[in-house]
Amino acid sequence: MPLPLVGGALALASTPMLIVLLRGNDDVSGALLAATIIGAAIVALTVEDPAGETLSASPTSLARRRVLRLSALALALAVTWGCVLMAAEVAGRFTGHELAQRAAEGAAVAGLAAATSGLAHRRGVTGSAEIGAVAGALGVLVITSLAHRFQQLPALLSEPHHGRWWLVALVGWVVAAWTWRDPARR
Known about the structure:
It is built from 7 helices and no strands. By secondary structure, it is mainly α. It has one domain (3-179). Helix 1 (3-23) packs antiparallel against helix 2 (29-40). The two termini are 28 Å apart.
């Protein structure tokens, strides 16, 4: 696992909250949103497997190897997210409803990132994890910008149709699970 890249991304995700703390602001919604979008995008790194060619001959399936990598990334994300939430509690107030909204947006970013990186890796694209991370974050931002034109789409930090981020996440994770199949299986 590219630990410097993971550590850098998690540090980048927690930087907005650090800035809010240093400035003494009490509005943490933007910092929580930035931490969600940046942090959830590192899920795309599940496809990075330097020993993939060697391990592909083992009886361990591709999906199992990726789930193990995902669990390590999820643990790092949970620790970072816990630190960000503790800092948010110190800096200002946030509600459980706002936390649920960030969870939906994070699941959508992670699903889009995992799906894009999985599709790119299946096609043999170099840098598929990085492409997936950028596509996951940008995908959610594009959906939000389109929500101003098409009111049925969900938008970041907006209440109407916010539950539809879970549908975006579901589609992303279904595609990601499909790309995690072993290539020889149908």
